[in-house]
## 1
Amino acid sequence: MAKYIIRQSLSLTGEVAISGSKNAVLPIMAAALLTDARCEITDVPALRDVDVMCGLMRGIGARVNERYGDRTIEITTEAIASEEAPNELVKKMRASILVMGPLLARTGRARIALPGGCAIGTRPIDLHLKGLKALGARIVSKDGYVIAAAERLRGANVYLDSPSVGATENITMAAALAEGTTVIENAAEEPEIVDMVNFLNKMGARIKGAGTNTIRIEGVARLGGAKHGVIPDRIETGTFMIAAAVTRGKVLIRNAVPDHVKPVTAKLGECGVDVRALDDGLIVDARHGVLRATDIKTLPYPGFPTDIQSQFMAFLTTVRGSSVVTENVFENRYMHVNELNRMGANIKIEGRVAIVEGERLLRGAEVFATDLRAGAALVLAGLSARGTTRISEIHHIERGYSAFVEKLKGLGADIVRAEE
Ligand code: EPZ
C-alpha cells in the first residue's frame, strides 16, 4: 500500500508553481459536451479526478486526446453514445454529476447514478434537480439512478436555497442551450464558476453575472468549440501558503491568483504571517515573530473556503493560544481531528465547532487520510512534527494534488512516496 513518509522539515524555502484548478477543469470538461465541435483545454492538472472524468467522457462518446507534454486535453463529442454516468464512476468521483446538465441539454436525456455520501457529508443533489426541473426536465429516481428527460429545456427563474457550487454549474450548463432566459438567484460565486462561464461564453453562450449571486443565461440554439486555459488552483495555493506558515519558512508561490485566496491571506496575517501579493503569485514569510491564534469560520466564496479548513487547523495547532474553528458548509468535515490529536494536537469538537489549543509540539505518527483535504492537513502536520509521520490511504490526496511530493521536495521537505 502506498504511503507518504515525512520527516520533520522546518523552514521550507524556495518557489513552487501552482497547477490548474481541479474544481474548474472538471465542470469545464463537462461543458465541452454541449457542442459537437472540438474544444481544447490547457493548463490541465495531472490528477486522478481528471483521469476519471476523461473515462466518463469517453463512455459518453467524446473523443478525448490527452497531451500530457503540454498539459492539454482535446475533447470532441460529435455524437452522444450514452447518456449515462455509471455508478462505478460516480462513486469514485462525485463531480461526475456535472455531466447531467450538459447531457440533458444536448440529448434531452440523462441517467446518473445517485452520488452517495462521502467522508465529509451526505452530499445531496436536491438543488441540482430543483433547477433542472424548473428548466422543464421530468426527473425520476430508480434503482439508485436519477433519470432526467426533457424534449426541450425552457429558461426559468431558479432560486437556490443554498449557494451550491455544483448545482449552480449544472443549471448554468443546461440553461446555456435552453429556449429563453434563465436567472439563477442565490447562485454560488466561486472563481471556478467564473472560469467555467468564461469557457462557455467563448463557445458562444450568453451568460452574465458569474461571480455574483445572480447569474443570467440567455439560451442559444447551439454552441461551438473553444480553447481555454484553466485558472490556477486556489485550494492548492492555500495549501502551500500554509506549508510555509506551519514550517515557519519563506516560500514564493508562482502562477497563483492573490485575489482568490484573500481569506487565507487575511487569516495568516492575523496570526502574524507576512503575505505579499505579486502580479502572478504570493510570497509567504513566516520566519519572524511569535505566531498567534485566530478564529476561522468557513462560508461559501468569498468567505473562508471549507476546502482549506483542515489545512489551516493543522497550522493552528502549532501557534500560541486557543483558536475556534467553525465549519458551516459541510456537516462532517472534522475527520482530520482524530488523526491530528494522535500526533499530539489538542483539539476538541463541539458540534460544528472545533476548539484548538495551540503551541503543541506535534510528534510523528502512523495516520491515515480520510478524505482529500484532511489528507493534505496531515502532510502539513507531518512537516512540522518531530520525528517521522507515515500517512496511508494517500489515494485521497492524489485525487486533488498533482506532483505534491515533488513540489514539497522542491521546497526542502523530507517526504517520500513508498510502497509499504
Ligand atoms: C464543490 O463541491 C467542490 N467540488 C468541493 O471541493 C467544495 O468543498 C464545495 O464545492 C464547496 O465549496 C468541486 O467543485 C468538484 P456544494 P459541491 O454543492 O459542488 C449542500 C474538494 O476538496 N448541498 O457547494 O458538491 C451540500 O450538502 C471538494 O476539492 C445541498 O444541500 O459543493 C454541502 O453541505 C470537496 N443540496 C453544501 O451544499 C445540493 O443539491 C455545499 O455543497 C447540493 C449541495
Note: The CA atoms of residues 94 and 115 lie 6 Å apart.
## 2
Amino acid sequence: MHHFAYKGGVLHAEDVSLDALASDVGTPFYCYSTATLERHYRVFSEAFSGADALVCYSIKANSNIAVLRTLGQLGSGMDVVSEGELRRALTAGVPAERIVFSGVGKTREEMAFALSEGIYAFNVESEPELTALSEVAAGLGATARVAIRVNPDIDPKTHRKISTGKAEDKFGVPYERARDLYREAAGLQGIAPCGIHMHIGSQITDLKPFNDAFALLRELAGQLKDDGVSLEFINFGGGLGVPYRGTNDVPPHPDEYANVVLDAASDLGCRLMFEPGRMIAANAGILVSRVLYVKEGTDKSFTIVDAAMNDLIRPTLYEAYHDIWPVDEALRAAAQRKTDVVGPVCETGDYLAPDRDLPPFAPGDLMAIMTAGAYGAVQSSTYNTRLLVPEVLVKGSDYAVVRPRPDYDDLIGREKIPDWL
Ligand code: LLP
C-alpha cells in the first residue's frame, strides 16, 4: 500500500502533482511519501504491539535525514553500519539508546565513536571483532553491550547477492560456534553480552526460512540462559520483502511474520528487536524521469530517459524489476509495446527496465519508476560525472527538497591538480 495515485489524470505523491514537481525541481528526482513511510512503520510495529519490541529501521535502505527524522519521531530506533550512518541517525535526532551498530568491518575508530555516543548495542560479527571491541571499550573505560550475530546456514531463497545467512556468506558467526563465543565474551573486559542477532537476507517473500532460522535462535537462547548469560534481547534482523510487481508478488503481511517471531520467542522474556529497511522505505519512494528520445533499433525499441543506472542500480545489479507508471494517466489506456527503458550512461548494462511492455512513451513524457524508496538514492553514484539527483519529501500537499541537486562545482571542485602538472 502506498500513497502514489492518479488524481485528475496526473500521478500524485499524496496531494502533490508529480508533473508540477518535475517542473519545479527538474528531472530526474526521487520523491518520498511521508504517509507511506509512516504507514509502513506503524503496520510493522503494531504487529508487535503486545510485546516489548524495538524496531530499528535499517538506515542503509534510505538514509536521508528527513526520512530518518520522520521515522524517529514515530519512536523508531535505527540500525547503522558505519560511523557515517550513525552520524546521520544522531543528526536526525534519534536517541543513541535506540541505535544498534551492525557490519562485518567496524573500525576501532567507529567503535570508539559509537561507545562515546552510548549506543544501545553492537551486533558483533566475528571473534576478532569482539577482541577489538573489548580492547577499545576497556581503553575508554566503557562497556559495549553486545549481541553476537549468528549465521544459521539457512537459504533465504532470495537473490544471491542479498542472502546473508548461508555458511558461504561473510556474515556472522557459525551457529555451532556461537555458544562458545558467548562464554568467551563473558570473560572479556568491556564487553557485556546481552543479546543475540540474526539477519538471514533481504527481499524474503517466504516465511519458511524465517521459521527455520528463528527455531535455532530459540534453541540458542535456551542454551545461553543455561550458561548464565543474562539475555535482554533477541534481534531478528530485517528482511521482509516487498511487492515489486504490483499485485503479482505479494509478500507475507507483517502480522504473519509476527506470528512466526512470537511463536519462537514470546515466552523467552526478552525484548524483541527488528531491523526492517526495505519494507518501510521501498514503496514509499519513486524515481521520476523524463523521456529524452525514443529510438527504433533493428531488433528493439529503446526508450531513452534522463535517469540511469547510476541513479538506480538495482535493475542491472540484481536484475530487479520495478514497475513503471506514466505520470499522465491517459497514457495508461494506450496499447502497450515492448521497449527497453535505458539511461544515458555508456554501458550496455545501463537499463531500468529491459524488454518491458509499456504504453508508447514519447519524448518529454514523465515516468515514475516505482518502489524505488529503498536501496535507490543510497546506492546512487556520480558515474559518467552525472549529478546526484535531488530527493523530495512530500507530506500531504506540502513538499520539501530534502537533498538538493548539487552543481558541477560540488561534483568536480573537490579534485586537485598536483603542482607538477
Ligand atoms: N539488518 C542487516 C544486518 C542487514 O544487513 C540488512 C540489509 C537489513 C537489516 C535490512 O534488510 P531489509 O529489511 O531491507 O531487507 N541493496 C540490496 C539490499 C541489501 C540489503 C543489505 N542488508 C537491494 O537493493 O536489494
Note: The mean pLDDT is 95.
